[in-house]
């Protein structure tokens, strides 16, 4: 798997942060500062994902330290798969799942642009604060849409810090998603064939649900 320089930097940073301060600083302080009660919103999205998926598998990408994921897995009757590009996060998430006694939460290391899952593998997909930091907004969204089952829902939580004038869509493609307007994420979801809507806004954060339209079978018409 060939990674870009940006992907390598992201992997190294989050691997380094996993055991040092990610939960205590990023999740417990930065998320509430920038997103208000965003953490509760993410957990509510998890509960919605469980309801939508039924017994089908759920994907949480990026899983991070599994801070939210272990709670979601406890409520799900099926498998919740955690995926992250950062090896340090994968190791930490596995340790957390093991220590919490959650046995339906396998964790895999994977590139968000090349997920090792078949088309339509998951009844619901969770992506909490991943899109703002993962390089390649459209490539990531397209891959998440690919592994989402027909009729499933992608749940997105995203903090963005738009800087300066919006600029043209082409110029924004070169910007990190964290610094792009929230509307760009919703538009990327729509371009991937999902029906997206912002369900809540919390300070600088948005909670988005994106439905993948269910396939309709064509009736055979006999002349």
What does this protein structure show overall?
By secondary structure, the chain is of the alpha/beta class. 40% of the residues lie in helices and 20% in strands. It has eight helices and seven strands; from the N terminus they run H-H-H-E-H-E-H-E-E-H-E-H-H-E-E. It has helices spanning 5-18, 22-35, 38-53, 69-75, 87-99, 137-147, 169-172, 182-191; strands at residues 58-60, 80-84, 107-109, 122-128, 148-159, 195-202, 205-211. A seven-stranded mixed sheet has the order 3-2-1-4-5-7-6, sandwiched between helices. The longest helix is centred in the N-terminal third of the chain and has 16 residues, at 38-53. It is globular.
Brief summary:
By secondary structure, the chain is an alpha/beta fold.
Mean pLDDT: 92
What composes the largest sheet?
7 strands, mixed
Order of helices and strands: HHHEHEHEEHEHHEE
User: What is the total tally of β strands?
Assistant: 7
Strand order of the largest sheet: 3-2-1-4-5-7-6
Counting DSSP H or I runs of 4 or more residues, the number of helices is 8
Termini gap? 52 Å
Form type: globular
* Poorly predicted segments: 217-223
As a whole number of angstroms, the C-alpha radius of gyration is: 17 Å
- Provide the helix percentage: 25-40%
Portion of residues in beta strands equals 15-25%
Structural class: alpha/beta
Top keywords for this entry?
single chain, alpha/beta, 7-stranded mixed beta sheet, 7 strands, 40% helix, globular, disordered C terminus
């Amino acid at each position: 798997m060939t990674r870009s320089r940006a992907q390598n930097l992201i992997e190294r940073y989050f691997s380094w942060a996993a055991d040092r301060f990610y939960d205590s600083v990023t999740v417990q302080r930065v998320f509430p500062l920038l997103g208000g009660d965003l953490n509760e919103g993410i957990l509510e999205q998890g509960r919605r994902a469980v309801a939508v998926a039924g017994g089908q598998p759920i994907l949480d990408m990026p899983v991070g330290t599994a801070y939210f994921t272990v709670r979601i897995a406890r409520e799900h009757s099926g498998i919740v798969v955690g995926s992250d590009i950062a090896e340090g996060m994968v190791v930490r998430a596995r340790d957390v799942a093991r220590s919490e006694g959650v046995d339906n939460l396998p964790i895999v290391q994977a590139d968000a642009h090349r997920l090792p899952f078949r088309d339509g593998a998951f009844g619901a997909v969770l992506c909490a604060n991943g899109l703002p930091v993962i390089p390649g907004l459209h490539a990531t969204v397209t891959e998440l849409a690919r592994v989402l089952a027909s009729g499933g829902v992608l749940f997105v939580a995203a903090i963005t810090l738009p800087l300066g004038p919006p600029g043209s869509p082409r110029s924004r493609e070169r910007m990190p998603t964290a610094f792009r307007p929230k509307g760009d994420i919703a538009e990327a979801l729509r371009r991937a064939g999902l029906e997206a809507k912002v369900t809540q806004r919390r300070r600088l954060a948005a909670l988005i649900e994106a439905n993948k339209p269910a396939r309709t079978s064509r009736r055979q018409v006999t002349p």
